[in-house]
Design brief:
The complex is a heterodimer of chains A (344) and B (507). With 344 residues, chain A is an all-alpha fold. Helices cover 75% and strands 1% of the residues of chain A. Chain B is built from 19 helices and 24 strands. Classes of the chains: A mainly alpha (344), B alpha/beta (507).
Chain lengths: 344, 507
């Protein structure tokens, strides 16, 4: 069976174990209101995870998502505090800033050849710093968190009957993301450059472009998440989304994306986001210390990564036994041919 | 010859690397729908010729005509646009994508920006059926065998309307049955008018497949034979050149001392080598010859402990070895691997650190810290014994010349009580002077009683320093030369699978 298929079944299995375990032991857990709260909790992480899925499939990483959330939120808060511009201006500004921030990550990685980790670690600092600088301050200079009163904007934090808008947005973003991945050439190319960059280049794919697009998508998703989060909190603080990037990456990895790239999809990341939300929710229901949450999260990630490496070893073994070690032979031919060529 | 029949014609191609002429006025013409083989020893210029034809290297001189028109090929893309494709083993496939996605990568069929999966599958299925392959367009490439991947590569080339497909040692990693399938594929391509440039070391394949054969030697075109003229004896003679048959180029085998250091019995690693048995004696240089990919290097790694055999026994000084590299090193093993840069030394460490790296057990002893003085002393010793230049112990090993890098790799083993040295292509990419030093060193070690196993594709080298030679073929020991005089021709024949009793009459 394909690695993706096994991984999918595996993460679905973990998810159902969690649901069954919490459902069987808590009367509150499987009630409709709790389910919708739970979905709401999963949504912001999930929306960000859709974008980060693209980056991780290209064998990259994006550590700046949480900081982008803070920056975008702060820009919106400023617009509402200082101006009377219509809501759509704030939304458009937020999305544009998110896209720009993601594109900047892409530029750093492709033009300046920074490793993804370093590039987005640096921009994480930059975006959060910018959020601090533009934070609204009182006359004494201390940061004051102004409440947003724009009713139009606050609708984003609201719900339609029982379903929160953010949850609907989550599913729309996820569907769009999955569509791009599976139904457009861009999606195929995203997998291609993550799986084997050199081969993709040999097939005439512009890897740099794909990489930039992936980061931009991640930036846009962060902005979407930021808008809903801000509307729900009715304010913006510079610390918004601190550490969120790690929850997002955890969701993506639990969902089946391999850090080595080329594997996984948005559907998996949705499962991962739900898993994280249920874990948090269940643990609070039991009044267990929050520490349990992060310990379990850590263990699950380790299990998933072990799974990947075991699978790869088995796959390599199978191929080795079916034929010969091709890479070595080719490398040997190259070395022997080139070497002798130099002295003849 | 009908001019219209020529698909590609290369005239007087010249190419030099840092002043050394690798191709000297080489010509090549390939007809439409023919399988054209190119043979030559390592370093004859085959790879360079292909790289010139596919735009990897620019040519210094000469002209290339394609379909009768003069063309310039400056990049892979240029070659691709003309319809020249190279089958790069598995390199250019994306393991996690399907067969169909791989074949159409970068040329996907879309409708309004959305992938038209139906149309793509149809196109692929048509392509597969045209050539009669058995391949599922939805299969994921990483689950396919190497042979199937090769078929995908070929299909990818065909989907780009290639009229010339270059195959470089395509059977190097295929089993017998898989090779058979490839030959059938080649037959099908030929029937459809696709030309194939086939590079191989394997005589029997060329004999069977090629319509014509171009032989290169030392960067020159020596001969073009048509099908009827291809016979193993002549081909080998043309490849080596007559002058090399003289006796000074033959190696004289020497009787080995009775004391067995290493005993290998029925060693197998599935898909790589099988049923390997031999004895290695004290003070003996045992040469292992054979084609690249015949499993030689892998045996060395198994003996050293860096790979595990699937079955078989290895006895060192009468005791079975099981174990780790570090334990083997302590018992007196040393390995000079083929891939010097990634396996032999650590480029970013200083020469001194590279030399002491395997010898900390001696240096540290019972103390807690390493003494810088003793490190330096050891390095100085190595520099002096091996004449490493520049004699600067702090220089990064990666900045040394190839020959001096190799001296560092050998040097770290000389600094300890060595009993067995495994040495793989020791002089690949090394200039002549250092080569001699390394030969002298191997001789000296053997003199002192170190048992040496030498893997080499350089025939004169193999013949010159080996006391005894095993020739491998497709993962098995095909022949052993243990006495009398052995010529390059003998080894080459054995490596190509020709059992020839005639050698006795040469003596």
């Amino acid at each position: 069976m394909r690695q993706e298929t096994i991984r999918r079944l595996f993460s679905l299995l973990l998810l159902s174990i969690l649901i069954v375990a919490f459902g069987a032991t808590s009367k509150l857990f499987l009630t409709l209101p709790n389910i919708f709260t739970l979905l709401r909790e999963a949504s912001v992480t999930g929306i960000l995870a859709v974008g980060v899925t693209f980056v991780i499939i290209t064998a990259g990483i994006d550590l700046s998502t949480g900081a982008i959330v803070a920056f975008v939120a702060m820009v919106c808060a400023n617009i509402f505090y200082y101006t009377t511009l219509p809501v759509w201006v704030a939304l458009a500004a937020g999305l544009l800033i998110g896209a720009g921030a993601g594109y900047l990550n892409g530029l750093l990685v492709t033009r300046l050849h920074l490793p993804d980790f370093i590039a987005t670690l640096s921009t994480q600092g930059i975006f959060r710093g910018l959020a601090l600088i533009i934070a609204i301050r009182s006359s004494t200079g201390s940061i004051s968190n102004k409440v947003i009163t724009n009713q139009g904007f606050l609708l984003l934090g609201d719900r339609v009957s029982v379903v929160y808008l953010v949850t609907i947005a989550f599913f729309v973003v996820a569907l769009l993301g999955q569509g791009i991945l599976k139904m457009t050439p861009l999606g195929t190319h995203t997998y291609a450059i993550g799986s084997s960059r050199k081969s993709a280049d040999l097939s005439g794919i512009n890897s740099d472009r794909v990489k930039k697009v992936a980061f931009t998508i991640s930036g846009i998703c962060s902005a979407v998440g930021a808008l809903f989060l801000t509307a729900r909190m009715q304010t913006a603080i510079p610390e918004l989304g601190t550490g969120l990037e790690f929850d997002v990456i955890a969701a993506v990895v639990i969902g089946g994306c391999a850090f080595s790239g080329g594997r996984g999809d948005v559907f998996g990341s949705v499962v991962g986001a739900l898993f994280m939300a249920i874990l948090t929710n269940g643990i609070y229901k039991y009044n267990l210390p929050a520490a349990f949450h992060i310990i379990i999260k850590g263990c699950v990630i380790i299990i998933m990564v072990i799974f990947d490496s075991v699978y790869h070893r088995r796959m390599d073994d199978r191929i080795r036994k079916a034929g010969k070690m091709l890479d070595q032979a080719a490398a040997a031919a190259e070395a022997a041919g080139g070497g002798a060529g130099g002295i003849s | 010859m009908n001019v219209d029949d020529i698909l590609l014609r290369a005239v007087d191609i010249e190419k030099s690397f840092s002043g050394v002429k690798v191709l000297k006025k080489v010509g090549l013409d390939i007809r439409r729908g023919e399988v054209h083989a190119v043979m030559g020893e390592n370093g004859a210029g085959k790879s360079t010729l292909i790289k010139v034809l596919t735009g990897v290297y620019p040519r210094d001189e000469g002209k290339i005509f394609f379909n009768g028109a003069s063309v310039t090929i400056n990049s892979r893309q240029d070659a691709k646009d003309l319809g020249i494709a190279v089958i790069y083993q598995e390199l250019s496939l994306i393991p996690t994508l399907t067969v169909a996605q791989n074949i159409l990568l970068g040329q996907e069929i879309c409708r309004a920006g959305i992938l038209d999966n139906g149309a793509m599958k149809l196109a692929i299925r048509k392509l597969i059926e045209t050539y009669g392959f058995s391949l599922n367009p939805d299969a994921i490439v990483e689950t396919l065998s190497i042979a199937q991947r090769q078929t995908v590569e070929i299909l990818k080339a065909l989907s780009m309307q290639s009229s010339l497909i270059i195959m470089d040692e395509p059977t190097a990693s295929l089993s017998v049955k898989e090779s058979e399938n490839l030959f059938q594929t080649i037959g099908a391509l030929k029937k459809r008018g696709v030309s194939i440039l086939y590079i191989s070391h394997r005589l029997e394949e060329v004999y069977r497949l090629a319509d014509r054969l171009t032989i290169l030697r030392d960067g020159e075109r020596i001969a073009v034979l048509s099908q009827g003229e291809i016979n193993p004896r002549d081909v080998i003679r043309l490849m080596i050149g007559k002058e090399l048959r003289q006796s000074e180029h033959a190696g004289r085998m020497r009787p080995s001392r009775p004391e067995v250091v290493l005993r290998v019995r029925n060693l197998s690693r599935r898909g790589v080598f099988s049923d390997i048995s031999f004895d290695l004696h004290r003070g003996e240089v045992l040469g292992i010859g054979g084609l690249v990919g015949s499993g030689r290097s892998e045996i060395l790694h198994c003996l050293f402990g860096s790979d595990r055999p699937d079955s078989g026994d290895i006895l060192f000084e009468g005791k079975p070895i099981r174990g780790t590299v570090s334990r083997n090193i302590r018992s007196g093993f040393g390995l000079v691997p083929e891939d010097r840069r990634t396996q032999g030394f650590i480029p970013l460490l200083s020469m001194k650190r590279n030399i002491v790296l395997t010898n900390y057990d001696h240096l540290v002893g019972r103390r807690l810290f390493i003494s810088g003085k003793s490190e330096l002393a050891m390095c100085r010793d190595a520099i002096q014994r091996l004449d490493i230049r520049p004699a600067n112990s702090e220089i990064h090993a990666g900045n040394l010349s190839g020959g001096n890098q190799q001296k560092v790799v050998v040097g770290k083993w000389l600094m300890r009580d060595l009993k067995m040295l495994l040495i793989d292509e020791p002089t690949a990419g090394i200039d002549v002077g250092v080569k001699e030093d390394i030969y002298a060193l191997i001789g000296e070690l053997a003199e002192k009683g170190v048992a040496v196993i030498l893997v080499s594709s350089d025939l004169p080298e193999l013949l010159r320093i080996s006391h005894r030679i095993l020739v491998m073929r497709k993962g098995r020991i095909f022949r052993e030369f243990s006495e009398g005089s052995v010529s390059q021709e003998d080894v080459l024949k054995a490596a190509s699978g020709i059992q020839d009793r005639e050698i006795e009459s040469n003596e």
